[in-house]
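Can you give me the bound-state structure? Components:
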Amino acid sequence: MLTDAVTALDRVFELATRLGGLMEQALAERGLTTARSGVLFVLHERGPLVQRELSEALRCTPRHVTGLVDTLEAQGWVARGRHPTDRRATLVSLTERGATAAARMDTERRQAAHELFGDLPATDLGTFVAVADRVLDRIGRPAPSDADG
Amino acid sequence: MLTDAVTALDRVFELATRLGGLMEQALAERGLTTARSGVLFVLHERGPLVQRELSEALRCTPRHVTGLVDTLEAQGWVARGRHPTDRRATLVSLTERGATAAARMDTERRQAAHELFGDLPATDLGTFVAVADRVLDRIGRPAPSDADG
DNA sequence: GCAATATAGTGAAGGTACTTCATGATGAAC
DNA sequence: GTTCATCATGAAGTACCTTCACTATATTGC
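Here's the bound-state model for the whole set.
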C-alpha cells in the first residue's frame, strides 16, 4: 500500500471529525458546548480573565464572549466580578463548581488521550507529533497557547 | 523531549482547526461553505444522487439537504432532475460549472496535501497514517466513505 | 383493485453559534 | 479637560442545522 500525502490529510480530518464529535457528546452530557467549555478551559489554565482577554484566547469577538459568559454565569460555572483597577472591565472567574468541573474535564481529556494514543510505541508517537508539528510550522502557528515542554 | 499522548491529541485538534480554517477560507473565496462544498464533493465522487442518499453521505437531515441544494442550485453548481423510476425522488447532479469546480477543488486538495505532507519521508508519513488509523479503529470507524486503496 | 403503511421532499418554526454596528461608560494622553 | 482608545453590551442579522407536520408518491398485503 502506498501511503501518500492525500491519505494523511484525509486522516487528519477524519480523526478530528470523529474525536470532535465524541468530545461534543461528552460535553453535552454536562450541559456544555464546545465554545462554552473553551471558556472554562482557558480560565482553568490561566485563572480569572477580563472578557477581552478571553476573546483573544478563544479567537472570537468580544461580543460573543459576552454571550458565552452570560450562559455560563446563569448556569453557575463562572462568575463576573470587578476588575481591581479598571472599572470598565469585567473579571470572569470560575465558581467552585466551574473549577471542579474544569479540573475533572482536564483529567478526563488526559485519560482519553492515553486511552487513544497511550499504548503506541513512543517512537511512533514521536513521529506522529513531529509530522504534525512540521505541517503546523509550514502553515504558520498562530500562537502557542500553552507550553509545549 | 517526552512525547506523550496528550500532546498527540492536542496536535490533532490544532492541525484540524488550522487546516479547517484555511479550507473554509479557500471555499469562501469561491462563494462556498464547508457544508455546501461537501455536496459538490460527494456528487463529484459518486455521480448524481437522490437527496436522501446525499443526506446519508453527508450525515445530516434530509431537510438540511433541501436547503443546501436550494442554495447550490440557485448559484448554478447543481441541478435538480427527475428520478427515472421514482417520481417522489429528486436526482441532484452537478452542472457543468459544478463539475468543473469540483474537479478543480479536488485537484487543489491533492496539491495542498502534497505541499503540506509531500516532502516528508515516506516512512514517517506511513507511521503518521498508521497511528491515525489505529486511533480511528479504536473509536470505531463510522463508515468507509471512499476507497482507501 | 384498494386500504394501510412507508418513503422522498419541503414549509414552518426554532435553536445555536457567531458576526457587525452603534452606544454608554470608563480610562489614558496631551 | 478635551480627545481618543478601550471594555462590555444591546440590537440586529447571517449561517448552519434540527424537529415536526404535511403532501405526493411508492410499496405491501389482502
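A couple of observations. Residues 33-35, 60-61, 63-64, 67-68, 86-89 of chain B lie near DNA strand D (CB under 10 Å from a C1'). The CA atoms of residues 44 and 102 of chain B lie 6 Å apart.
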